[in-house]
Amino acid sequence: MNTDEDLNxxxxxxxxxxxxxxxxxxxxxxxxxVSLQTAVGKDFNGFxxxxxxxxxYRTACYALAGTLYTYRVSVTDSAQYPVNSTxxxxxxxxxxxxxxxxxxxxxG
Length: 108
Hints:
Blueprint: H1 4-14, H2 22-40, H3 51-70, H4 85-107
């Protein structure tokens, strides 16, 4: 998720027109990717590159990175914001797909 294409897609999603926050957006994309792979499972056999997984994976990463960017000031004692529900629902779907792929890999 550290490509210029991913950064530009995230910026399009968030309607960001400047390059001022590119560094923090890249960090949030990397954080989202690590978080997602921690929640679902590490990449094996190119799981996250599969056609039926790739779009969900990118959408979840963009959703979490966008949430982190939008609510980056909520680390204080002010109101707290829940993680994006889009991300949560995709994590659930990816977990099921991951377990199925893992089982198929084990059983040949």
